[in-house]
Specification:
By secondary structure, the chain is of the alpha/beta class. It has 14 helices and twelve strands. The chain starts with a helix and ends with a helix.
Length: 289
């Protein structure tokens, strides 16, 4: 039976209030680095349960989901949440795709509400929009429209004690006169409604300095993707600590950025993926904890 929109928002707000009486306390109890499950997208197609066991064994305690909504990797949210519990894993954040019919207000709201319902079942704090349609990010006016939609999604999320964030690739840094698409998103979104998940690799690949972004919009970058750049081919990723990105320099500005969560991610491998994620996790813990 469908739940009326107003009823869901009220119920979700009460549920979240019970789970996250003090969001900052919850954050402090969580691990300092998690894993974006996109890293293991091919492995998840074959053996969801086995993958989650190996993620926990690699040293992670937090995972960021992707593609969620009605299901996570073929499992209903409650079932997937129980699987995480079985391995002492949490999911503080999830990637949820930007609604296809974003120009239809009711359909946009309904899709965001479905994300909120799943996020509450998962006990996630952050709903992250991982990308935008090309029709929006390819023009300055499109970026402004995207910002308007993100603000609306942020309002809905806040009503259920959830925080919206936006994850960048490199295409948001396309130049429109004196500003980039990312500049427009930062300027046109409400800082309290829309946080940023800064993918450090993609920002650097686009020729941007993360420290300059932090200085321009301090406190906006609640989430980071920790993804290293291959020294011989910048188009490729490598294990964290093995590439060309100076993470120590960036982490020295973590407070200015306002970061609350870190998620390790890798999209290509030269070794076994499970060995790779462990190597990255080990480096992170040794260097930054």
């Amino acid at each position: 039976m469908a739940i009326p929109r107003r009823t869901f928002i009220q119920q979700a707000g009460l549920l979240s209030a019970g789970l996250f009486i003090n969001p900052s306390d919850f954050l402090l109890k969580a691990p300092e680095a998690g894993l974006q499950l996109w890293t293991l997208r091919e492995e998840l197609k074959k053996d969801v349960k086995g993958v989650m066991a190996k993620v926990a064994a690699a040293g992670y305690a937090d995972v960021e989901t992707f593609g969620g909504g009605n299901q996570f990797f073929g499992l209903a949210p409650k079932i997937f949440k129980q699987l995480l519990n079985d391995h002492q894993l949490i999911s503080s954040s999830g990637h949820y795709y930007f609604p296809v019919n974003y120009q239809v207000a009711k359909e946009f709201d309904d899709v965001i509400l479905s994300f909120m319902e799943a996020a509450n079942i998962m006990q996630q704090t952050y709903i992250v929009i991982p990308s935008l349609p090309e029709a929006l990010y390819n023009t300055a006016d499109g970026c402004k429209m995207a910002a308007e939609k993100l603000n609306r999604a942020g309002e809905l999320c806040r009503s259920a004690n959830l925080q919206l964030a936006y994850h960048n690739h490199d295409f948001e840094f396309k130049q429109f006169g004196t500003q980039t698409g990312y500049d427009i998103l930062l300027k046109e979104t409400d800082a309290s409604l829309v946080k940023m998940e800064l993918d450090l690799y993609f920002a650097i690949k686009a020729g941007k300095d993360p420290l300059a972004l932090f200085a321009k919009a301090p406190g906006r970058f609640a989430l980071w993707h920790i993804k290293d750049m291959d020294k011989s081919d910048p188009a490729l990723n490598t294990e964290v600590g093995s590439g060309s990105i100076n993470f120590k320099k960036i982490f020295a500005h973590a407070q200015e950025a306002g970061v609350r969560r870190y998620f390790i991610e890798q999209e290509n491998f030269s070794m076994n993926p499970f060995r790779s994620i462990k190597k990255s996790c080990d480096f992170f813990k040794k260097t930054f904890r």
